[in-house]
Design a protein that fits this description.
Shape of chain B: elongated
Number of strands of chain B: 0
CATH topology of the largest domain in chain B: Helicase, Ruva Protein, domain 3
Oligomer: heterodimer
Helix content of chain A: 55-70%
Structural class of chain A: alpha+beta
Number of domains of chain B: 2
Shape of chain A: globular
Distance between the termini of chain A: 96 Å
CATH class of the largest domain in chain B: Mainly Alpha
Largest sheet of chain A: 6 strands, antiparallel
Largest interface: A-B, 65 and 53 residues
Number of helices of chain A: 19
Strand content of chain A: 5-15%
Radius of gyration of chain B: 29 Å
Helix content of chain B: 55-70%
C-alpha cells in the first residue's frame, strides 16, 4: 500500500503539472488545437482527483489494517483504536493533513472542471490557477512531508491517536475546517482568472457565489465544532482561548464574511470591484498563512505541530501568490473601474463599506495580537505573550461597532435613505434596545464596575436591536405580500423568504449572530470554585451546592479512572447527580477530563474532576457556572440554517391578481381608420 | 416637564447603579493582565487550583505592589522582572509594546480615512457623468424612485 500511495502521489503531481502547463498554453490559443489541448488539460485536472484519492485511500487502508511499517501510521494509530479514529488518522498528523488538503483541493477542482459549461473560457483559466495551487501541495506531500515514509523496522503496535482527539466532534471538526480553508481557493482562482482575462461583467461572482457561501459555512461549522470540542473535552471551562491557531481560523472567516457582503455591492451596483478582488486574494492568502501557522510551529500554540522545515515551502508559496496577485492587478487594474458611485453616506452601500472596514479591521487586530510576539522577538530579541486580555480589549469594541452596523444595515435603503425613513424604521429597534439596556442595569448588570460587564451590557442591547430589526423587516415585507395574496401574515413571510432566499436567509443568519452574541455576553458573568472534597464535603458555587456522596475508581485495558459522585442542589432543591471523571490513559498515564455538565438555556453547571491531592488522595473538584453558553451553539445553528436557506434558489415571483381595465362598451369603439 | 424630570431622575439612578462598588477594581484590572506562572495557563485571579505552587505568592506580590505603587506599569514591571516576561499577557502601554495597542486603532482610522476619501471621489464623479448625459425627466425619475421603493422586497 505505501508503494501504491507513493505512486498515486507522483502520478497526481504529473497530472497537475500537465493540467497547469498545457492549460496555460491552451488558454492563450483561440484555435481548434487550443480547444483540444484545453480539453486534455481539463481531463488531466479531473484525473488528479482520482490519483490523490488513491493516495488518501492507501493511507486510510494502511491505518485500518494496522500497517505499522508506515511511519505516519505508527505515529498516529494503534490496534486498539476504533475504526472511525483510524480513518481520522488521515488528518491527525502533519503529513496526512497535507495529503487531506491536497485531496479536498483536487475534489473541488474535479467539481469545478465537471461543471465547465457554465463558462468554458473562464473555467479553463481558473482551472490552471487551481492546478498551480494543487502542484504546491503535491510537491509538499511528495518531497517535504511524505505520509508514506517507511519505518526502519516494523513495530508490533502504533503509538495511537492523542487521547484528546478521540472524540466524535474531532472526527468532523478538521474536515469541516479544511473544507472551509481549501474552498476559498475556488473563488480566488475565479477572481484571478477574471482579472487576468479582463473578463467583462460580474459572472465570476455569480459562478462562485454558492462556492463562497458553502465554503464560509464549512469554515463556520469547523470553528464552532472546535470551540465546542474545547468546551466539552479540555475541561478548562471555556471555548475560545485566543490561541494562535484558533486565531488563524478566524482570519479567513472575517475576511470571507466581508467578501460575502461586499460582492452584493458589485452585483447590485457594479461598485467595489478592486476591493472585492483584493478581499478574496487576501482571504486565500490568510488560509495559507493559517496552514503555515499550524504546520510550521512559527508561533507556539497548543494546537501547532512541532517546528518543521515545511515552513520555508509555505513562505515561498505565499511570496509567489503575493507576486502573482500584485502583478495581475497592476496590469489589469483599469478593468476594475466602478460603474456607479455612492449617492449618499446614509445608504445600504455605505453600511456595507463600513461593515467591510470593521471586519477587515477586526482581522487586522487579531493578526496584530497573534504576530506581535514574533515581532517583539525580532526587534528586541525578547519573548512576550499576548493573551486573552489584550484580544478582548481590542477586538470586542470593533465587534460591537460591527454589531451596531449589522443592526442598522437592513433598515437602510440602497442608494439613499431619507431622514424620515430612518426615524420611522429605527424608532422601535432603538427603543427596545434602550429598554433592554435599562432592564439589564435594573436586574443587576454593572457596566461601570468592570469592562467585561460593560461590553456584555452593550452587546446584549445591540443583540436585541439586531433581532428587532430583522423581525421588523420580515413583518413589513410579509404584510406587503399578505396584501397581495390575501392570505395569512405567516404565509406572506414564507413567500417573502422564498422570493429572495439570499436576502432573507442572510437576515436569519443575522439573528443567529445576535443569539451567538447573547451567549458570548454570558462570559462576563462566569463564576468558578475549586475545592478538595472529602466524603460528604460541600462545594458552593453561586446558588448551587455540590455534595460529595462517593468516589469510585475503575480500570480497564485502556485507562484507569477516578469518578466523583456529586449530589447537586440549587438552594434546597435537589437537581440530580453529576459524575465528573478523570481518566489516565495507558501506557504513559496521559490524563483526560470527562466533564460533567448540567446544561440549561440559562446557564451551565460545569464540573471537572481536576485530580487528586497527592498528600491525602482526596479528589479536587472544580465547578464553573457559565451563563448563557447554550446560546452560542443555538446561535451558530441558526446561522447555519439561515446560510443554508440562502443557498436555496429563489421561487418565482408571486403573480398578484391584476385588475383589468373596465371593458369599453362596443358601441363606443370604432374600427381602426374609421375616424373621419 | 414632569416627564423630563422623571427621566432625569431615572437616568441619575441608573448611573449610580452602574458604578456600584469599585474598591477592588485596580486589583481585578491588574490581576487580569497577569498569568499564573505554574504552567496551568490560567489568569492569576482565576488560578485557584489546589496545591498551585505559585499563585499564592503571586497574589501576595500583587497586593504588596499595589499598596507600594500607584503606578500600574510599575506593578506589571515587577511581575515581568520577578516572574518572567511571559507572566504578563497584555503588552505594556509604553515603549515598543505600545505599538501593539496603537496598530489596530491606527489601521482602522487609516481605513476610515480611505473609505471617506473613496466616498468623496465617488460623490464628485456622478456630477460630471450626469452633466454629459441626456437631461432626465424629473417626472419619470419620480416614477422610477417609486417603483424602486415599492419593489424592494
Amino acid at each position: 500500500m505505501p508503494l501504491f500511495g507513493n505512486f498515486c502521489l507522483i502520478f497526481a503531481l504529473a497530472l497537475a503539472a500537465y493540467s497547469f502547463v498545457v492549460g496555460a498554453i491552451a488558454s492563450r490559443r483561440r484555435d481548434a488545437a487550443g480547444a483540444r489541448l484545453n480539453e486534455t488539460a481539463r481531463r488531466a485536472g479531473m484525473a488528479t482527483f482520482f490519483a490523490v484519492t488513491g493516495a488518501a485511500v492507501a493511507l486510510i487502508w494502511a491505518s485500518v489494517t494496522n500497517d505499522f511499517s508506515v511511519a505516519y501510521i505508527y505515529g498516529h494509530s494503534n490496534r486498539a483504536l476504533p475504526v472511525a479514529y483510524k480513518v481520522a488518522a488521515l488528518w491527525s498528523g502533519q503529513e496526512g493533513s497535507l495529503l487531506f488538503w491536497s485531496w479536498l483541493l483536487s475534489g473541488y477542482g474535479f467539481v469545478l472542471r465537471l461543471r465547465h459549461k457554465v463558462d468554458q473560457r473562464l473555467v479553463a483559466v481558473a482551472s490552471v490557477i487551481l492546478a498551480g495551487i494543487q502542484i504546491f501541495f503535491l510537491l509538499l506531500v511528495n518531497y517535504a512531508a511524505n505520509p508514506f515514509g517507511l519505518m526502519d523496522r516494523v513495530m508490533a503496535d502504533g503509538k495511537g491517536l492523542n487521547i484528546l482527539l478521540q472524540y466524535a466532534e474531532m472526527v468532523i471538526h478538521p474536515p469541516m475546517l479544511y473544507l472551509g480553508y481549501v474552498g476559498f481557493s475556488v473563488p480566488f482562482a475565479f477572481a484571478l482568472a477574471a482579472l487576468i482575462m479582463k473578463y467583462p461583467g460580474e459572472k465570476w461572482i455569480h459562478i462562485t457565489r454558492r462556492w463562497t457561501i458553502v465554503t464560509w459555512l464549512f469554515l463556520s461549522v469547523g470553528i464552532t465544532l472546535g470551540a465546542h470540542w474545547a468546551y466539552a473535552v479540555l475541561g478548562w471551562g471555556g471555548y475560545w482561548g485566543w490561541d494562535p491557531v484558533e486565531n488563524a481560523s478566524l482570519f479567513p472567516w472575517l475576511t470571507g464574511t466581508a467578501f460575502l457582503h461586499s460582492v452584493m455591492m458589485q452585483e447590485k451596483r457594479g461598485m467595489m470591484k478592486v476591493w472585492n478582488v483584493w478581499l478574496i486574494f487576501i482571504t486565500f492568502m490568510l488560509t495559507i498563512l493559517g496552514t503555515l501557522m499550524t504546520r510550521s510551529g512559527i508561533i507556539s500554540s497548543v494546537h501547532a505541530f512541532a517546528e518543521s522545515p515545511i515552513g520555508t515551502w509555505f513562505y515561498i508559496f505565499l511570496a509567489i501568490v503575493i507576486v502573482v496577485c500584485v502583478v495581475a492587478y497592476a496590469l489589469n487594474r483599469k478593468h476594475l473601474k466602478s460603474e456607479n458611485a455612492l449617492e449618499s453616506l446614509v445608504s445600504r452601500e455605505s453600511s456595507f463599506m463600513f461593515n467591510n472596514l470593521l471586519l477587515v479591521g477586526a482581522c487586522f487586530t487579531v493578526l496584530c495580537g497573534t504576530f506581535f510576539p514574533i515581532l517583539s522577538e525580532w526587534v528586541r530579541d525578547r519573548k512576550m505573550t499576548v493573551g486573552a486580555p489584550f484580544f478582548n480589549k481590542v477586538f470586542i469594541p470593533v465587534g460591537l461597532l460591527l454589531l451596531l452596523l449589522t443592526a442598522m444595515g437592513p433598515l437602510l435603503a440602497w442608494r439613499n435613505t431619507s431622514f424620515g425613513s430612518i426615524k420611522r424604521n429605527f424608532a422601535i429597534p432603538f427603543g427596545l434596545s434602550l429598554i433592554t439596556a435599562i432592564a439589564l442595569v435594573v436586574i443587576g448588570v454593572r457596566p461601570l464596575h468592570d469592562l467585561a460587564q460593560f461590553f456584555a451590557w452593550i452587546g446584549l442591547s445591540l443583540a436585541v436591536m439586531m433581532v428587532v430589526t430583522v423581525a421588523s423587516e420580515f413583518l413589513r415585507g410579509g404584510r406587503v405580500l399578505q396584501g397581495k395574496t390575501g392570505g395569512w401574515l405567516l404565509g406572506g413571510i414564507y413567500h417573502l423568504g422564498r422570493r429572495n432566499t439570499r436576502r432573507y436567509g442572510g437576515y436569519v443568519a443575522h439573528v443567529g449572530v445576535a443569539l451567538f452574541v447573547v451567549g458570548l455576553c454570558g462570559l462576563a458573568f462566569t463564576r468558578d470554585q475549586e475545592q478538595e472534597m472529602a466524603l460528604h464535603d460541600k462545594l458552593q458555587v453561586g446558588n448551587y451546592t455540590l455534595i460529595n456522596q462517593a468516589y469510585t475508581q475503575d480500570e480497564d485495558d485502556r485507562y484507569r479512572s477516578d469518578t466523583a459522585l456529586l449530589d447537586v442542589y440549587q438552594g434546597d432543591k435537589y437537581l440530580g447527580q453529576l459524575n465528573p471523571e478523570i481518566r489516565y490513559y495507558k501506557p504513559d498515564g496521559q490524563p483526560d477530563h470527562i466533564v460533567a455538565n448540567r446544561s440549561t438555556l440559562r446557564e451551565d453547571l460545569y464540573v471537572v474532576y481536576e485530580g487528586n491531592n497527592p498528600d491525602n488522595g482526596r479528589p479536587i473538584i472544580k465547578a464553573f457556572i457559565n451563563p448563557l453558553v447554550n446560546w452560542v451553539w443555538i446561535g451558530v445553528m441558526v446561522m447555519i440554517l439561515g446560510t443554508s436557506f440562502a443557498l436555496v434558489p429563489n421561487a418565482a415571483p408571486i403573480t398578484s391578481p391584476v385588475t383589468a381595465p373596465a371593458a369599453v362598451p362596443a358601441k363606443q369603439m370604432q374600427p381602426v381608420g374609421a375616424a373621419k | 416637564m414632569k416627564r423630563l424630570a422623571q427621566v432625569s431622575v431615572l437616568m441619575c439612578a441608573l448611573v449610580l447603579l452602574m458604578g456600584a462598588d469599585n474598591a477592588t477594581d485596580r486589583y481585578n484590572a491588574i490581576g487580569g493582565k497577569i498569568m499564573c506562572s505554574c504552567g496551568c495557563s490560567e489568569m492569576l485571579l482565576k488560578c485557584n487550583h489546589v496545591g498551585c505552587p505559585n499563585s499564592s505568592q503571586m497574589l501576595q506580590d500583587l497586593k504588596v505592589n499595589l499598596q507600594r505603587s500607584s503606578n500600574d506599569d510599575d506593578v506589571l514591571k515587577f511581575f515581568r522582572d520577578n516572574w518572567g516576561v511571559t507572566s504578563v499577557v497584555e503588552p505594556a502601554s509604553h515603549g515598543f509594546e505600545l505599538l501593539a495597542w496603537i496598530m489596530p486603532p491606527a489601521a482602522l482610522a487609516l481605513g476610515l480615512g480611505l473609505v471617506l476619501m473613496i466616498v468623496r471621489t465617488w460623490r464628485l464623479r456622478p456630477a460630471h457623468a450626469v452633466a454629459e448625459g441626456p437631461a432626465l425627466d424629473p417626472k419619470l425619475e419620480a416614477f422610477r424612485a417609486r417603483a424602486r421603493k415599492e419593489t424592494e422586497i
